[in-house]
Amino acid sequence: MLLSGGLDSATALAVARARGDECRTLALDYGQRHRAELLAARRVSAALGAVEHRELKVDIGALGGSALTDARISVPERGGDGIPVTYVPARNTIFLSLALAWAEVLGADTIVIGVNVIDYSGYPDCRPEFIAAFERLARLATKRGVEGRAIAIDAPLVELTKAAIIRRGLELGVDYASTVSCYNADEAGRACGRCDACRLRREGFAAAGAADPTRYQSVS
């Protein structure tokens, strides 16, 4: 289970646990500026009953190219047309590759990822086509795959609205106050209230008719 510590991945973990999966969670320290999410991932993993949590460091941020990893690029306060500067080049491809390696070592049958293509920022590696393509790659690129025991890639939230994701998570007891979604969160995990991730999250709670438990630095 790829677990960022954000709203979507926490809900995906809750969905997997609710169907009876034994889950091991993996968080990636990739040089992101919103490092509070790593602490959130630890909290969420423990709260939702994962049997193990690991954190790997893979400094793709050193390559630059994203507002999430390069302090010289400002995190935009409003989404615009096209793929935003918060896109991290090849992030989910790298993350799934690392999860695939661990899954094969563990003998796991499924990798779960909380990507979503409805209420999202337009990242190309959050689409169903990408998930399907990576699953095909996993069949070709692993010992298990060529032996006929392919590892599935499960994206249970991929075509849900943010409101639907939140409703499902609340049904399953997710404590969203423990999650961090903000692209520009401070060290205490408080959200900026202005970035695209904050906007999508806030609008999702409003559309779900649920109180927003997010701790904000300020909201404008």
List keywords for this structure.
Rossmann fold; single chain; 220 residues; two-stranded parallel sheet; globular; 37% helix; mainly alpha
Q: Briefly, what CATH class?
A: Alpha Beta
**CATH topology category name:** Rossmann fold
Radius of gyration: 17 Å
What proportion strand?
5-15%
Note the run of SSEs as H and E: HEHEHEHHEHH
Count of DSSP H/I helices: 7
Structural class: mainly alpha
Please tell me the overall pLDDT: 94
CATH superfamily name?
A: HUPs
Give the CA-CA distance, first to last residue: 34 Å
The number of strands is 4
- Architecture (CATH level 2) name: 3-Layer(aba) Sandwich
Query: How many strands, what sense, and barrel or not for the largest sheet?
Result: 2 strands, parallel
Task: Please bin the fraction of helical residues.
Answer: 25-40%
How does the overall form come out from the CA principal axes? globular
How many structural domains does the protein architecture include? Answer: 1
